Amino acid sequence: MSILDKNGKVFGRINIIDLSVIFLLLFTVPVFIFSYLAMAAKKYKQESLVKVTVELKAYKLDPELVRALKDGDVERDVSCKIIGVFDKVSDVAPSTTAIFSSDSQSFIMIDDPVKKDVTAMLRLSCKDINGYLYYKSSPVKVGSIVTFSAPMYDFTGTVIRIDRS
């Protein structure tokens, strides 16, 4: 017995076109159901805009960049809305570097004569998506890296404190 007989039926029972329609339905209906459920899940995402004050710590900055940091500098998005304001520089300290001692058994911390560590306060407009903060599509949480882009410089630092008020 052949798979396809002279009348075009599979195993003599069902038409080949009917069989292909059944297979098509069996494979496409689950795909449509899955895509509908995925789209429905996205609709329930709660998103709002929140103003937060973030304290950043940047390490080993060049002195030219430290001098360029100005209170009140702003970052704008592509539609020219202000999304961040450089509030103030809280602290500027020499960067420290660990070097081997003369006996090569321990480290000695010395101040870098040029590079500086800077702590700064920024006011950012973050998206609050289901309780998580995002600034320019990057998560904002203690320990994360945030980049503030003013017209004259980019300031990248590690978040050390967040104030939502």
Concise structural overview:
The chain has 165 residues and is an alpha+beta fold. 21% of the residues lie in helices and 52% in strands.
How does the SSE layout of this entry go?
Layout: E1 9-10, E2 14-15, H1 16-43, E3 47-61, H2 63-68, E4 74-76, E5 82-100, E6 107-129, E7 132-135, E8 138-139, E9 145-149, E10 154-163
Antiparallel strand pairs: 1-2, 3-6, 3-10, 4-5, 5-6, 6-7, 7-8, 9-10
Describe it.
The protein is α+β, with helices and mostly antiparallel strands and 165 residues long. The protein is built from 2 helices and 10 strands, in the order ββαβαβββββββ. Strands 3, 4, 5, 6, 7, 8, 9 and 10 form an 8-stranded antiparallel sheet that branches. Strands 1-2 form a two-stranded antiparallel ribbon. A hairpin with a 2-residue loop joins strand 7 (132-135) and strand 8 (138-139). It starts with 8 loop residues before the first strand and ends with a strand. The model has no long low-confidence stretch (mean pLDDT 88).
